[in-house]
Every structure is written in structure tokens, then in C-alpha cells.
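Model: You mentioned two targets. I'll fold them one after the other.
Researcher: Yes, keep them separate.
Model: Target one:
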Amino acid sequence: MAKFYAVAKGKSGIPLILESWDACKAEVIGFKGAIYKSFGKREDAADFIRLHGLGFEGSSSTNTNVSKGLSIYVDGSFMSHKNNFSYGIVVVDNGEVIHTDKGVGFDEEAISLRNVSGEVLGAMKAVDYAISKGYEAVSIFFDYQGIESWALGTWKRNNKITQGYHRFMQEKMKEIKINFKKVKGHSGDIFNDMADKLAKEALEALK
């Protein structure tokens, strides 16, 4: 019998419905105050999350319309022997992965920034995806602080890559609400790990 694990409060900071105990464990074991329970039906798992008053981004609001907001995990990678960088993104809506993407970049100046350029490219791809699907808000989950700090202008932009990224994000913020949430890389966050794996796969497939 299939099981659905409702994680109302876990490491990712967003409500999740997972389909394996291993994925659930990664979210809740070692996390103080975790709220979770297993169910035989997905609908019951969703009701459990709503019962705990958690909607998009774990808000304490009782508003259950989480479809207007989106969570996207981004990561970048670099391989010196291929002299190239890549990105991976994992799109999560209402606790479920609804889309993934990966790709490589070839800008010579961007290559000098190694995996950071992949993170930047992934963040831009994430925002474009959310806008293309008509979402009103998107939360970008990242493990490199520049993704937030360059976008908001709290870090100096010393090259065309970071300057272009800042302009891009500032313009997109006029179209969609963008939230930034930092996660610790390689810490067992399942979606961050998925984004990292996708970025690596993109480079491995490069001829």
C-alpha cells in the first residue's frame, strides 16, 4: 500500500508531501520541532498540512491556496577539465516536484566565476519559469549567498555577470514577488541535493 508522508514542519521550511520514508527522514530527523505523519491517501496528507495552518512557505496563515506561490531550488556546478559551468533547478509546488531543468553556459567571463555562474544562471531560469507559468510569487532556495545579495544590491557587483544578474532581478521584481531563502549545501536537503545532481549531470553529458 502506498504511503504519503506529510511534513508540516521540517528542514526545508516548506510543507511537503513525500512518498518514501527515506525522503521524510531526511526532512525531519535531527530537526527540532518537526511535525509530520504518514497517510494512505495524498488527500489526507494535504489535510494534515492544512490542519496545522501551513500554506506556501510554511506561513502561519490558514490560507490553503498554495498554488499562487512556488518554491524553486537552484544550484550550480563546474568541471575544470571541461572548463564549463552548469545549473540545475527543482520546482516544488505544494510539496511536490512539478518540474526540473538543467543546462550549461558558455560565456567566457562567466566561466571564470566557475560554479557561481551556474547558480546565477539557475536563479534567472527559475524566475523566468515562475513568470511563464503565471505565479504571483516565487521563493528561490540557494546555498550561495550571492544569489540573494547581488540580486538585492547588498553585495558589490564587480563584473558584467553580477551586474547583469542584479539588473535582471530588479526588473523581474516588478513582475513577480521574489523571496530568497538560504539553505546549507550538502546538508541532506533533498531538493538542494537534487538541484546539485542535475547541475552535475548537465556537465557530464557535455561532449
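Model: Target two:
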Amino acid sequence: MSKQKQGQYRNPEAILDINECPTFPHLVGLSIQHMFAMFGSTVLVPILVGLNPGIALFSSGVGTLLYILITKAKIPAYMGSSFTFIVPMMALMKTTGYEGIAQGTISVGVVYLIVALIISQLGSDWLDRILPPVVVGPIIMVIGLSLAGTAAKDATMRTVGSQSVYDLKYFAIALITLLITIVFNMYLKGFVSLIPILLGLITGYIVALFLGVVDLSGVTHAHWLIAPSFEIPFVSYHLHLSWGAILSMMPLAFVTMTEHTGHIMVLNTLTHRNFFKEPGLHRTLSGDGVASIVAGFIGGPPVTSYGENIGVLAVTKVHSVYVLMGAAVSAIIFSFIGKLSTLIESIPSPVIGGISFLLFGTIAANGLRILIDEHVDFNQKRNLMIAASILVIGIGNASLNLGDLSFSGLAVATVLGIILNLVLPQKALSER
């Protein structure tokens, strides 16, 4: 079924190890399976924000290929749309639009490259110092909980003219979508258990279709093959730097860096290798950064490594980078299928709302899990002060406005959390 290059370590637990390539029929099947496991989350981010899903698919595929190239084809990782930046991207879409999101996305990639350069010279211990669990956990919780209102609005409110009105039918569709996705999560086995979000979207879409909520007119008139409409900053728009957009997204790069580092740790265990040493953390961060810069230049959201990818690798025991490259090429091909992109855009808001109930809650729960797994002690005043400040400022979206510059509550909370962690003593005077 495959070949392994001589002299290379082979993981005995893998059906296909990192450098093993399956025969062509198996490669096609495994690649499409892997792509669909990433598909639901990759297109959900642009749907929520209002970006083009086709562009997100395209940038996901191109970003994955670039990542594999930069990491010397030694890490089986897939790049998908990042959920971390949903809050600032939603705000920017209402103000600066594509231009601001693109500049923010490019700035995120630049931060990655700067940190990668520092790590290549100094190592990575300092990253743990500024982003311990007491900072990262609450920030991830904020990302999920600050979006709760958006999910509720999508699930219950129908737009009539310029007004939003409560619609019980919408809420019913949202609840059905939520419950069926929970059922898929709990009771499915094998490969289909890895794509409950995608299956939930499809089921909710069918329910909405029967209830007359879906508008298919756009799908009928769409072409089968169409080039994605790239929104290229500084070309599609006049050259104008949006510092508010850049500074609202840039600090969150440190959050996704932490997630990325965690993914690499899990991949180390799964593949019985040490990717921090070879090809090195500076290369993994560089690959992620370059992928986001390219995504920004074509109008896509920031991309990052995906936890779903690790799930597929663990269940199938197929770790081949050739399969990952095949999945990336499949995503690029799908982005040129016009009817598919239009079909995705026709998904009604209550279906998105139902999925978002679970998705945003899961993000928040993952932040809580970090605090529990790392045994963060909230009897210590220091930890309580840091977490409390991040949670309320972030969830309440206490934005900072300085003239033309605007920083989202999430960005303010992230920076404040890092500063408090660096300056507060380990124990308050009353605890000594």
C-alpha cells in the first residue's frame, strides 16, 4: 500500500506513517475524507463573519501546502479558519469591511514570523512565562462566551425590512440543529463521529428547507465552476492602513500560538516524535504565520492548526503528509465549485445559531478545562484577580477607543491579562 524511505524512523502504531504515500485510489479516498473532517469548521468561520466561504476553503488548502513545505514535510498538520478572531472580525466587517480584516489577518501572520525569529535565536521558554494557563484559560473562555449573544440572535431573530423580529420557527430550527448535533457527537462511531458539525449543518439545513426558510434562488443561478472572488487589500481598495483593525487582531496571535503549541505537543505523542526539535517550533510557527499572511492577501480569515486534524489522525492511524497534501488540494478544487459556495451561503441563520450554541459553548468549556487540567488555584488572590479582569472586560466587550483607533474588549483583556501576569507578585501581602 505504501513505501517508507530507508533510514527513517517508523511509528509502529501507524497504518501509514508520516513519509509513507498510499496508492493513488487510497490517496484520493483518504484525502477527501480528511478534507471533509476539516470542512465544517473551516467554512463556518467565514459564514459567521460574512466572508466568502470559497476563499476560506482556498486559503485553507494553500495554507496547508505552504505549512507542509516550510516544515519540510515532517508534520501532519492541516490549516483551517481560526475561531479565535471571530469577535474582532465581526466588528470589523461592520466598519472597515474586508480591508480591515485583511490587514488584521496579515498582521497576525507577521507576529507569528517575529516570534518564530525570536524563538530560533532564544528558544521558547519565555512564551510560557507571558502566557500561563491562568491567562490563556480565561481568554479562551471569553472567545466563546462573548459570542453567546450572536448565537442567540441568529437562532431567534428574523430580519424583516430593517428590523429584527422574534420568530418561534427560527428557534425551533436552531434547537433541532443543536440537539441533532449533540446526538451525532454522542452516538456516532468511526469516521462520521469526526464530522458532527458538518452532519448537524446538513440536517439543520434539510429541516429549514422543509419549513420554507431556505432561499435556493442563488444556487439555481450559480455556475458550476467559478473562480473565487478574491478581495485583495491595497489592490481592491485604496492604500490605507487601518491601525485599529491591526491592533484589535494582532494581540490574539499569542492565543492561537498557545493553541498551536498545544497541538504540536499532542502530535508529538501521537507520532512518537519531537517536532519542537525537528523541524523546530520556529518552523511550525513560521508555517502558520505565512499561511495567515497569504490568507489575508486573498481575503480569507486567519488560519491555524486544527484539533479536528488530530482527531482524524488518532482514529484512522493515517499520519501521511501525502494525505494531508491531498486534502489541501481537494479544498482548493472545492473552492472553485460555484454552486457549492452558493449553497453554503444559503444556510439560514437559525441553523448557524443552533450550531453556534454548541460550538461557542465548547470553546468556552475548553478554556475552563485548561484551568482545571493545570490545577489553577483560585484561592490565590493573584490568579483570581487576573481571571476576573479578563473575563468581565472580555465578555462585556469593554472596548478601548482612542480617536480613530478602536480595540475590542477581547484585545484589551488579552493585553491586560499578560501585563497583570508579569507584574503581580505570586502572593498578596495577606497570603504571606
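Researcher: Noted. Anything on target two?
Model: The radius of gyration is 22 Å.
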